[in-house]
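User: Hello! My lab partner asked me to get a predicted holo structure for this protein. The small molecule is zinc ion, SMILES included with the sequence. Please write out the structure tokens.
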Amino acid sequence: MTRQLWAPWRLEYIRSGGGGDCVFCSAVTAADEGALVVNRGAAALVLLNRFPYSPGHLLVAPFRHVGGIGELDDAEVLEIHRLAEQGMAALATALAPEGHNLGWNLGKVAGGSIVDHVHLHVVPRWTGDTNFMPVLADVKVLPEHLDETRRKLAAAWPHEPPG
Ligand SMILES: [Zn+2]
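Assistant: Hello! Below are the structure tokens for the protein in complex with zinc ion.
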């Protein structure tokens, strides 16, 4: 069976066990390393997807636990956009992707697994990745790989907003 790469975020973070805190709300107060946080703004943060569809798959989320993009205030909208840009710049330095998919999954039918805390996916892409990414998607991602990727991206994060 071939998966559509255009919906890579369907494999996003799946909470283990029942219940538990929202991964994004938890990341707001957690240490960067444990929560895979790459960068924090004033109202939003960037973390690595624990179940990435490609290396460096980032999630940008507001601090506030809101379920719709219409509930974001102007400062949050702007910062999420800028953090996504900065994330792509950091990815360019650390992993040199050739392109990106950016997307919001709104509702379970659209592939969202955390539907009550909105987040923007930034998925780096490489030529030919459609050939091997569906295979990689079924491979367990080792935590140390994520830790190393997090360190690389945090170190490569631009100091000044692009543009
Ligand atoms: Zn939340």
